Amino acid sequence: MAAVLESLLREEVSVAAVVRWIARSTQGSKDNPGEAAALSSLRPLRKEFVPFLLNFLREQSSRVLPQGPPTPAKASGASAALPGRPGGPPRGSRGARSQLFPPTEALSTAAESPVARRGGRRRVPGPARERGGRSLEEGVSVESLPGAGSRRLRGSGSPSRPSLTLSDPPNLSNLEEFPPVGSVPPGPTGTKPSRRINPTPVSEERSLSKPKTCFTSPPISCVPSSQPSALDTRPWGLGLPPGCRSLQEEREMLRKERSKQLQQSPTPTCPTPELGSPLLNWTGGLTDELADPARVSSRQRLELVALVYSSCIAENLVPNLFLELFFVFQLLTARRMVTAKDNDFELSPGALDSLESPLFQSIHDCVFFAVQVLECHFQVLSNLDKGTLKLLAENERLLCFSPALQGRLRAAYEGSVAKVSLVMPPSAQAVSFQPETDNRANFSSDRAFHTFKKQRDVFYEVLREWEDHHEEAGWDFEKGLGSRIRAMMGQLSAACSHSHFVRLFQKQLLQMCQSPGGAGGTVLGEAPDVLSMLGADKLGRLWRLQERLVTPQSSGGPCPPPTFPGCQGFFRDFILSASSFQFNQHLMDSLSLKIRELNGLTLPQHEPSDEDGESDVDWQGERRQFAVVLLSLRLLAKFLGFVAFLPYRGPEPPPTGELQDSILALRSQVPPVLDVRTLLQRGLQARRAVLTVPWLVEFLSFADHVVPLLDYYQGIFTLLLRLHRSLVLSQENERKMCFLNKLLLLAVLGWLFQIPTVPEDLFFLEEGPSDAFEMDIVAPEHGLDSMPVVDQQLLYTCCPYIGELRKLLALWVSGSSGRSGGFVRKITPTTTTTSSLGAQPPQTSQGLQAQLAQAFFHNQPPSLRRTVEFVAERIGSNCVKHIKATLVADLVRQVESLLQEQLVTQGEEGGDPAQLLEILYSRLCPHGAQALALGREFCQRKSPGAVRALLPEETPAAVLSSAENIAVGLATEKACAWLSANITALIRREVKAAVSRTLRAQGPEPAARGERRGCSRACEHHAPLPSHLISEIKDVLSLAVGPRDSDEGVSPEHLEQLVCQLGQTLQCRQFLCPPAEQHLAKCSVELASFLVADQIPILGPPAQHRLERGQARRLLHMLLSLWKEHFQGPVPLQLLLSPRNVGLLADTRPREWDLLLFLLRELVEKGLMGRMEIEACLGSLHQAQWPRDFAEELATLSNLLLAEPHLPEPQLRACELVQSNRGTVLAQS
Amino acid sequence: MILTKAQYDEIAQCLVSVPPTRQSLRKLKQRFPSQSQATLLSIFSQEYQKHIKRTHAKHHTSEAIESYYQRYLNGVAKNGAAPVLLDLANEVDYAPSLMARLILERFLQEHEETPPSKSVINSMLRDPSQIPDGVLANQVYQCIVNDCCYGPLVDCIKHAIGHEHEVMLRDMLLEKNLSFLDEDQLRAKGYDKTPDFILQVPVAVEGHIIHWIESKASFGDECSHHAYLHDQFWSYWNRFGPGLVIYWYGFIQELDCNRERGILLKACFPTNIVTLCHSVA
């Protein structure tokens, strides 16, 4: 590989030829024969060139630039399968022409964690031999020097390598100590120094093995220790040590390790910031070196390499565009060079055109190179967010090295509207209850309905508890909530309940994790990104502050692992804790369905609009809609991937060999949970990659190790790789994909290619010239891909790691304190509108009318179409509701009256209810036919008005009337389709409900609510409250019953007032409910009984403890009239003659019967009780056990009363009717 | 009537082992003249119910029942007109109505062939005239009218109070022109949980959005509030979003801590209601 590079440097071949050579398997016709010859001899190495180049650059920079975080990368191909250790720069084989396979070192990845790896994979050190055999022992030697990282030179014996003194500034390329911005080793073991102390040794053979296969990306904070190996000491490390074997072994080892770690934390947690001290060290002792264009050492060579590198990036030959940019930014912001004390590099002039000498010999070289590369990628840069652009444009190095580029960036900044704002976390809102889907009718049984009711509440209870506690230290989801969740899931017995619960779960997921503003990425609980909130001038202060903080600012690095940030964590943990296969299955079903639905959504398509301004407004809406759909899809797909691959992810390393084969054989039988391959193919064909690919990437990011080996998924990866290759940003093609759309796809695909489970070799091994990616795109000329649906906000939301670029630049600013502020003043951004023109694809198979309608919309503003569709949709739906409320309600009323008739004619029984129902159905269902006619009429009547109201006044009459007609047609179609399918069932259901209602009312509670009168019109509802009265009467009753204190009693006035109030309350019905009235009735009867028995203690002088007879009569009179006139419910007057109440009289001495007689007479007179009734009551009284004399008196009373003529005879006095021996008392009346 | 926890505790302290009688209430009112009677009664009632819940089990052991029944029989044998049952209840610190139920049940077990059903007992308690034994009927009736915390009469009063406050709330909503769906309408639509009122258009009270209003004609103490939160308020939130609870007889101030989360407490109908403006300007 180095051979190619060297050919280049010697100008034997042109850059263009090299790039063509790399990119395509066949040689282009443009290559001149000499070049072709030179390159064709190297053909077998073609695939290994890019990884070699990337590793070479990493290696070079890490050697010369021990500053800042190294760029994580996944190197491949020719390079070794090793984690590059920050401190111990990897050795590679020397890139001599004869050296086809640069040896690599094998390093232990023992302590790696997935996050660390992802955060900072380095290209594998392939070449870079200059330090020869040192690398491995370095890490070990440095252990004794905490804080010093793995300085290269300590203890190693290579004479040729530059050495560092101990007083050197800390080696910032030591990722252990100085992890890159945002890269955070996960978990408690994240950055433990113990890793340095306990290196896992790797056998020498292995470490020298031949890099036959692709590399394994080194982790960002990998172990700086490894075995010392005897490598040659030449700067580019030519000599392969003996015993160099296949890399396979170490790859396997690495894989095992990696998978182990991955499986241990299948869902890596949010990175915990651990950057503080390194940063502190970093800035603490360093002053930035000034970069000077005049001091660049070998311009030509740098230019050439930069050009090749840029071309590789431009051609998408590198796996991850943004990772390379990150690397370049690192070079640009390199702070300081490690001083090479014993400068071994006495560079001969000849060395300059070879790889013999280090590429970057100074900061100047680095910056020069970086600027060279950036110049080639201005277009990408100009599409970054405004904050990044500002920082770039203000970068004085850039100004110094390329004023032209700086000028363009500044202009881009000023023209940019791409402000990516921080979106505040949405607050948790519950999924609202919707009767249409949530009421009893949607459940198989009452039990299921009520169980689900409880589950909904438990679910939110758990969610609230999580919100309260999940940020507390020591709180554990499983411990805190696990058993409750499982208990709840255990109740979901019916399959239908599962689907209800899953619907709730999914809705809540979308609601909480995808804010309406379209910022699905920002979520609850995520620490806001302070760096991007602060202006550059504040950063210096932040910097100083950060030095004192234990947990500094961080994020996931440029290649964060898939995570569940914020409240997504709740849903993930819920799934894990529930561990219910039914739930998971239903969830997958539901997620798949929703994904299909959203993926297939006809997103409003852009149509050329010459109307001023309107297109802008519409575009806002359409972008927003696209963003919402895309973010929802990504969220759903992420969870689908998580659940679908959950059973296949375990702590054990991925299987190999035969075991793997058998697993593959087995797994290939399993149909995919969702046919993503077909969806991808269709998406590509329909030019909707911009919608489909981002969610597919989320789905695949959770795949287990076996997945990429399955034929089915291999097909997907092949498609994705081809797509990736085809997304050449510089090819601006009007009819192809928009720039930002491409950028989004490149970002997400690049991210996917860094996922540990995705095989490293996948990317570089893929054969397939980009030209071949001309999918048989037959379908639309203008799919979603060609529309500017992606904006920076969406790009950054989907790929927050792009923000790492800005952080790098911001750190540069903050590091160089004193350089604050910037030249850039606030400038009102101007809007740039991009519009791609295109025609609406005609939709077939909908009949001529439909095509005409389509055509009609074609040349109208998109808002017109949306309006018409909206109106049709709503009117159609309203129509159905209206029919329910009118026609069906009328039918139900008919049913009720029919039923009454039936009940009257057939007597109480009313016949068999089922039969009755059938009769009713047969009579009523034919009326359903009217529904269609009514529906048509309704749509006809309502739609035009709505369309008119919603369209602009100025809409031409013809357009308006067409729009109205289409709306009427669509609404009618919708309504009639529903009605014809459902009206009969609806009528049956409603009739059934009405019948059971009527029968119930007929049953146990006959005519309870007969006719009830309300208050009179003039009533102001000031009457005493029923509760107050019951309570007052109860007090009187309790006094009467006793026990009571001697001073307790009621005044006659109070009694009278009470009865008056009772009258008022009964006349004002406002607050009176039937139970209260019943109790009032009963209490009043009890009160009357106590009055009759003269048992109410009256306040006053001791002599008058009794109520005067006249007063008692008056009170009884009042009560009688209340009973007669004001009670609307039944009054239990028979209680007056209950043994208990009559027995009250037995205790009095002398007994006084006159009031009772009076009362009974009045009852009869007022028609409140019949004689017969009274007779029956008195009759039953005789059965009770009474004192003998009392029984006699009672018999007399009864005889008296019953002997009276039927007509009331007022002159007939009770006393006369009582026998003389007992008559004394009655004489008073 | 919003009490601090400390104020509430002071009142509750005075209620320990006080029988639920007319006399006790009168004393309580004298002790805390500044509190409204309704609030005091509500607090008393709730505290007493808590007390009964704690001690309920010990009165329901067969030994206890047997001993109560024997004491009752002995008592009425001596003097059927004396408040035997009521005194017994007060003596053993149990609610008179519940004691009446206990003895009635025991009595019926002895006198009927089949064990009495719950509905028969309830019916007899509602109307003691149905009790076959005249003396027991009087004793039971005396217990019921003298119990201010339990019994059919008290239940009816509580129900009536609840209903009255709902009606008042409805009137206030109508007066403010706030359109709403009431419990019956919601039930008819098939809602599984129904607050008293759901506002068709949400309003804001003291800066908080309100979708529903629940009326509680009681004092909001910790115990009842937590039960309501669990059974009702959070359920409403889970379905309809944030809402307002009115404890007409006041509540413990410290309980109003879920405002931010969507449950606002008030002791009266809110005065400053912000509604959605429909003005075109």
From TrEMBL, chain B:
Keywords: Cytoplasm, Nucleus. It holds the Pfam family TPD. It is found in: Cytoplasm; Nucleus. GO terms for biological process: erythrocyte differentiation. One of its GO terms (cellular component) is cytoplasm. InterPro entries: CDIN1. The keyword Nucleus applies. This is CDAN1-interacting nuclease 1. It comes from Callithrix jacchus (White-tufted-ear marmoset). The gene is C15orf41.
